[in-house]
Amino acid sequence: MASGAIHDSEERCDAPKCMPETRVAVQEEIISWITDGHKDAQPKKVMWVSGPAGTGKTAILGTIAERCKEMGTLAASFFFSSHSGLAARRSKKRLVATLAYQVLQHGSLDGVGVHGSVYQAIRSDPAIFKKRLHTQFDQLILHPFRQQGILGKPLPQMGRMVILIDGLDECDTEDDQREILSALLHAVKDPSFPFVIIIASRPHQAIKEFFTSVAQDATRSLFLDNKYAPDADIRLFYEAKFLGIRRRFNIPPSWPGPRAMFILVESASGQFVYATTVIRFIEGSSLDETQSHLAVDEALRTPHQRLDRILGLHARVRASQLRPLEALDMLYEAVLRTCPEPFLSVKWIRAITTFIPVKNLDEVYPLKSTRQEERDSHSTPVWLVRLLLELSPGEEQYALGPLSSLVHVPPGDYLGGKIFYEFYHKSFLDFIEDPTRSGDLYVSPQRAHDFVVDRYFRTLDSHLARMPRGRNQRHYLSMAYVKADVFSFTHQDSFEVAQADLLACDARKWTEYIVHNRGASSYFIERMFCAVHQWCSWFGCRPACKHWRRVILTVLKENGWTIPNAFKVFRDRWIHCVQAGWGFYPPRE
């Protein structure tokens, strides 16, 4: 189950909600449909809430979830998130289990007998959660209601209840999104299914095609446009937040003034993500006292100075050929350029998003008992990112501290803890990953990967010395936390620049560390043996390759390993990396 995807989970404690007296019209339209939609001339059992990035879909559904829970009409919720700390929130795998769990917790089902049917379904088929979503829905949600003989009738005191699913576009792949939609449509077409469903997403092509073709007859669409007066709500949001800033910094009540407010509302163009990012930026950096020695732009010390920086973007927006996200892109660029070294900051951000979940950790480095949730982390814990990337203590805050309006950087060491970076909105990652939007700040995935590999070798001696032991050490030893081989450079020039670092770091220390931590040590040895040779030519190896290969073979021989013969190593000049057949074997115990 993905407990972090439930609307009131601890992980979502800081998730956006609608402020009082904002988004009133759209909220009332949704609530009215939930409670009385069955009275429509052509009643629908699915509502699709869509709109561009930053229009407040997640905040609206979070608020609707709270209101429905208070009214007793919330059956279940699932909030997808591609930038969450847990992979379960971007995957389809836990969706049905999470929904079924919440449905069973609802008080209206006590004593009805649905619980027993669900438990029986799991006992009869323990592999049910590995099956396709259509089957899971059928066995865990639909069949129990059919079995209780409540076909087409509401449960006692149940009324009209809703299942909320937010951020469907943030689920892993379009195929998974289509499978989810198909399973949900299958459910609502069953007469025994007692719920209505609200799905919120961006209007991506695959989702839009489904709702406008396959599910058209079952769907009511609600698009967040100017009909719902977002400018008035954004103004209310600004007014409330500026009141708090004035109190906190003892600023006169006339600040920021009507002109500034007009510009801020106009620049937002109905995008709440713009407004929330502006306020976080104006409130200031999250640098703590221990980081006070770091460089700070003297022109951005006060909220008034930071507001002026934002207002200065307005003329650029009006003079440009306005794209739909032009103002937001300029805001993101302006915030990034407040960093002492903006390009380094982008490299850090790209590196963080390069780290991926260790999906098959037990296959690489076995451990008898590991909770599934611990294996499925979407991003690598902060302690490991710091361990691999920081050339000196404090570099993380130097690179990311000025970006507190865009990314949450947890304070403290948390050495070995499961604490993650948190990006406040996916649209920032969209900006970073799109060269047409980020311009000269763009860092390609390949260059980001090479940055990680370069830092791996530059910090190798220090990060091995500071490595935590036990279960957390195992996460490092998986060597599976980036999207490609953590030892291999994708560009020859990157390897050439890093050669001095490969020669300087302690290859013997690394090899002995891997050899003495069994598990899949031969696998890692082979990967390194190939990686250092990747950019060598047929007529000779580079100094870094010669150094690393000589040390690896020496250490393995000293520890009684079986190593490839000289002919196989020589042959590798012409046949690069016959990795599966190297023949590195530890001694038998």
Shape: globular
Instruction: Round the Cα radius of gyration to an integer and report it.
Output: 27 Å
Number of helices: 28
**How do the strands of the widest beta sheet line up side by side?**
2-3-4-1-5
Proportion of residues in extended strands: 5-15%
Low-confidence stretches: 286-294, 357-378
- Quickly give the structural class: mainly alpha
Query: End-to-end distance, in Å?
Result: 40 Å
The major pleated sheet works out as:
5 strands, parallel
Mean pLDDT: 82
Q: Give the % helix.
A: 40-55%
Number of strands: 7
Short structural description:
It comes from Ephemerocybe angulata. This protein is mostly helical.
Descriptive terms for the model:
single chain, 589 residues, mainly alpha, 5-stranded parallel β-sheet, two-stranded antiparallel sheet, 28 helices, 7 strands, 49% helix, globular, NACHT_NTPase
What's the topology here?
Elements: H1 24-36, E1 46-50, H2 57-71, E2 74-79, H3 95-105, H4 114-124, H5 133-147, E3 161-166, H6 174-188, E4 195-201, H7 205-214, E5 219-223, H8 230-249, H9 258-268, H10 272-283, H11 303-311, H12 313-319, H13 326-336, H14 342-354, H15 361-364, H16 372-375, H17 382-389, H18 395-400, E6 407-408, E7 422-423, H19 426-433, H20 435-438, H21 445-458, H22 460-465, H23 471-477, H24 492-504, H25 507-516, H26 521-531, H27 543-558, H28 566-571
Parallel strand pairs: 1-4, 1-5, 2-3, 3-4
Antiparallel strand pairs: 6-7
